[in-house]
Amino acid sequence: MPQTTLTLDTNGPGLLEFTDAADAFVRGSGIDTGLLTVFVRHTSCSLLIQENADPDVRRDLDGFFRRLVPEGMDWISHTTEGPDDMPAHIKAALTQVSLGIPIAKGRMVLGTWQGLYLFEHRRAPHRREIVLHISA
Amino acid sequence: MPQTTLTLDTNGPGLLEFTDAADAFVRGSGIDTGLLTVFVRHTSCSLLIQENADPDVRRDLDGFFRRLVPEGMDWISHTTEGPDDMPAHIKAALTQVSLGIPIAKGRMVLGTWQGLYLFEHRRAPHRREIVLHISA
Amino acid sequence: MPQTTLTLDTNGPGLLEFTDAADAFVRGSGIDTGLLTVFVRHTSCSLLIQENADPDVRRDLDGFFRRLVPEGMDWISHTTEGPDDMPAHIKAALTQVSLGIPIAKGRMVLGTWQGLYLFEHRRAPHRREIVLHISA
Fold first, then answer.
1. Distance between CA atoms of A15 and C31, rounded to whole angstroms?
2. Integer Cα distance of B122 and A11 in angstroms
3. Portion of chain B with pLDDT greater than 90, in percent
4. Do B41 and A104 touch (CB under 8 A)?
């Protein structure tokens, strides 16, 4: 079945939308009814389906996770990769590494306000790979 | 492959079980071995598989998320849709938008105590759509 | 399609890797391109894909969840199964019950540092079942 890899370049923490790329892949597959699986090949960024209308929602989501998992927690052992690395792993654990989205009439069944986002948790620029796979 | 949409009417925050509806769809499909994907088409409610024995578990789960993401956090920007809206998006991000459940011998492979729940995070009544899709 | 059940014996809270068992199942299936679904049949342990390099990452993940969801929260109602039971359900709700991992060239498309883990949240030893299912 169809499979591809998206490459996204990130520039610091926050939500990066890739709904259009996923939609293009689904439409190009010619599959009418099926399942799209989205998988991110990293442990310090993650996936999220969230509101794509008001950008404040994404800012507030990022704000919440920064407050819930701040840098500099004094009990952290894994500090060799920088103060933002272990919080990044924790934020990734609290969100998604994979998403399954049914396809109907050749399109993802997303609700009106749903967009697909890569949630970057590291400060430095990173190249991120997302695998898209369609099952019948 | 088989696909359907469930519609659930919610009446405020909490966990609403739909295991029976999913089970009926799986049995009706006649599929012996496969994969059920459950997807919710919204960003202010979410999905959860949790214990279906003691109702206190669901009350405590809701209680935890209300405490972790209270209304009225003063740094929130997205407030135009009411004080419960941004907390709803955050709780949805911390739980699931999609679930994949294998099917064996014509039934979901749920453990003895596992039930499927819609986790409503908004106060006002909402009509929610959940897409069920079966892959072989 | 191929399906199997892994049984893992746990000995208290923490992350238990089962990447090799999943890899062996995928290779043994002979499937070149497809989707592996991993599903855990319990509500007081969960699944996580996380870094398999530095063991401190797993210790810190467990440390974070113990601090976020401590035993003894005084508002908890569900206490009949022990002080670690309701926190276990909450930690399970905050992480994953199912994971979807595409297969390419006969192998899971895991990133270099990604490993599959059972995240045990109970103190007492438990026998845990994980269902693996491959779709085309």
1. 34
2. 33
3. 99
4. no
Whether the CB-CB separation of B9 and B110 falls below 8 Å is answered with no
Interface test with A, best of B49, B98, B101, B130 (most A CBs within 10 A): B98
What value does the mean pLDDT take over residues A117-134? Answer: 98
C-alpha A51: how far from chain center: 13
Unique residue bearing structure tokens 């496969």 = B34
Which residues of chain A make contact with C54, given a CB cutoff of 8 A?
A: 78, 80
The chain C residue lying nearest B50, using CA atoms, is: C43
Of all residues in chain C, the one with the smallest CA distance to A98 is C100
Contact A131 C102 (CB under 8 A): yes
pLDDT of residue B115: 98
Is residue C1 scored above 80 in pLDDT? no
Query: Is residue C124 packed enough to be buried (19+ CB in 10 Å), middle (13-18) or exposed (0-12)?
Result: exposed
Mean pLDDT score across all residues of chain A = 97
* A34, A35, A113: residue with CB nearest B43: A113
Instruction: Give the model confidence (pLDDT) of B17-46 as tens digits.
Output: 999 999 999 999 999 999 999 999 999 999
Quote ipTM for the complex: 0.97
- Chain A contact for B126, CB < 8 A? no
